[in-house]
Amino acid sequence: MAERMETESRKLLRRLRDTMASDVAGQARLDQITHLIADSMGTEVCSVYLFRDEETLELCATEGLKPEAVHQTRMRLGEGLVGRVARTGQLVNTPDAPAAKGFRYMPETGEERYSSFLGVPIQRLGEKLGVLVVQSRDAREFSEDEQYALEVVAMVLAEMTELGAFIGEGAALSARHQQAVLLRGTTGQEGAAEGHVWLHEPRVVVANPISDDPQTELVRLTEAVEQLRVGVDRMLEMSLTGDKDQLQVLEAYRMFANSKGWMRRMEEDISRGLSAEAAVEKEQSQARARMQQVQDAYLRDRLSDLDDLSNRLLRILTGQGSETGAEMPPDPILIARNIGPGELLDYGRKLRGIVLEEGSVGSHAAIVARALAIPLVVHASRITTEALNGDHIMVDGDQGVVHLRPDDTVVSAFRDKIAMLAQAQERFSSIRDKPAETRCGRIIGMHMNAGLMADLPSLENSGAEGVGLFRTELQFLVRNQMPKRSELSALYARVLDSAKGKRVVFRTLDIGSDKVLPYMKPNDEPNPALGWRAIRVGLDKPGVMRMQLQALIRAAAGRPLTLMFPFIAQFEEYTAARAELDKTIAREERLGHVLPESIEIGAMLETPSLAFAPKKFFDEVGFLSIGGNDLKQFFFAADRENERVRRRYDTLNVSFLSLIDKVVQRCRESNTPLSFCGEDAGRPIEAVCLAAIGVETLSMRPASIGPVKSLLRRVNLDEAREIIWDARERGEQSVRPAIVEWLRSQNGN
């Protein structure tokens, strides 16, 4: 029986291939396919249902059901047996469909006459495209061989969809990768960019899913797997001196690469008529389907290893991938599932924008994107499967929206937005060297955030008075091993040289949470944002902190030095960090190194607890910088990585502004300089409110300095403060409506 089905399977696949090669296109091609499947499998009915959108399936072709039902019958995801297959990604095989759980009666199709039902998902690497169904009058359960044959055909249909085989006159399916697509994600870095897609890891397209010569395909597979195994062994040999965790990952790689079960399943797929590439991809699709069902993190990681090995094997077989020498477009928008900071820095400023399917607003990639001032959207679901190299794409980092292959209307509106932003920057250039002096005579300090040497030219170009935050963790994150003290010292010295005497505030190492060093063993914490991070790591690993402090002192080489400790939650953490600095200074003096002319020592206020620290803390600390991003998420108990809650709470909420006001008052009592650092400092309306409450200095990305300064120079902060507290007295939740209305009344703005 198995041998007969293998022959039938190969025969059916050959007929499918002939259909693909024919001149018939669109609906006619799909009609031919349903006819030949029903004929080959001896069933009265074969139907193809395809997704019209994420929630809706449509009957696109049928043999045996009423022809007039085609393109008229639709169902929601999960509705009926077809919807169940689509939702779960699992086949349904029943001898009595009308009695099966979830059966939906559709009188327009005439399907009530058919008893047995076999439905399999049409999907490619986890991307659901539709459902393939066969039905017959006889009440029978389809055999395992018949199930296998239909699954293989469904996979080939997925490939045909990918290759545009159903495109043409009377097409049953719109052209894959030719439709305009709108994708919504999360803002990782603000800004707007237009360009063409550059895939970090181009997806492999299997152009020849069917083969007539199993023996040749088996040889190709065997040779490719051997090449894969050699490559994995080579990686393992090169990492023998590496850390234990990395070795365990590579050992798992080798285990899968040498898996006899994996190889046996692919060989069986080839014997049934698939090419070597299609066999690999079939197993990869099943691994991805299992990955979506598994809850255990360890098993998911192992299935992810198998997925990655399959990609490597496909690239060996097809010769596709980055190593083929495809030319990057002159205006590249980088598309990736995720990307490390080192890989992103390799691209550098060549990129116009970045779109990630995964990632987070606080990830390494986001930090680098902000440092490079490149618009970034994260959590853009399906972007790696929707986009192809060279596709026209527009990225709106402000709204977290991506327009892939946009139509003319979207292109026109988007280009208008980019032009308006460029015109605004031109207007701001005229006030670049002027102070942010308000109408009431207050001058607000305007500083910029930085983290790379590449940021420093913006210090002069943006009109920033100094660097309010220099993130020192980037130099640790982009390496595979701890940087040397001499390397850090040389870098910090170059930063100070480039600043040309302007103040640079170095924040000591802020790692943990979502910033995990590749060479430091990660801790499995249930909530890393509230876990072992920033100053907590520094105090627990004083050797690392001491090394960085030594590098900063030596970089200053007799010049003034300003540094601050991150994530201080209580006074004792500041005093402990300060003690480490004092010991380091004493040691450097004993060694005969030149000490800084002066050392200004501050702390970042990122937890509400520090606002209530003893007065002695405010008296002793050299300055305070409010880390707005973290303070806001802890104040509202709203994870800034969680789209469901992060936009729910407004920075101009009266309660939050009252906390900022309390910090302002405490700093005034102790004569402690105060700044605000974070995304909100770079938003003009928020900046006006912060300044009105009494924040003296704002630190933001360089591109935000112009618009913030422009608005500050046009307002009276005394009036703004009155508007804010009047709204509070009225019991309003947010002062935003009142402030926006007031701003509109100012000189017609």
Question: How would you describe this structure to a colleague?
Answer:
The protein folds into four domains: 161 residues, GAF domain (Beta-Lactamase), CATH 3.30.450.40; 113 residues, 3-Layer(bba) Sandwich (Glucose Oxidase, domain 1), CATH 3.50.30; 107 residues, Enzyme I, Chain A, domain 2, CATH 1.10.274; 316 residues, TIM Barrel, CATH 3.20.20. Helix content is 45%, strand content 17%. The protein is built from 27 helices and 23 strands. The strands form three sheets. An eight-stranded mixed beta sheet has the order 7-14-13-9-10-11-12-8. Helix 7 packs across helix 8 and helix 24 crosses helix 25. The radius of gyration is 31 Å and the shape is elongated. The N terminus is likely disordered.
| Relative strand content | 15-25%
**What average pLDDT do the residues reach?**
83
Number of strands: 23
Number of helices: 27
Q: Biggest β-sheet, characterized?
A: 8 strands, mixed
CATH architecture of the largest domain: Alpha-Beta Barrel
Radius of gyration: 31 Å
Principal-axes shape call? elongated
- Kindly identify the CATH topology of the largest domain: TIM Barrel
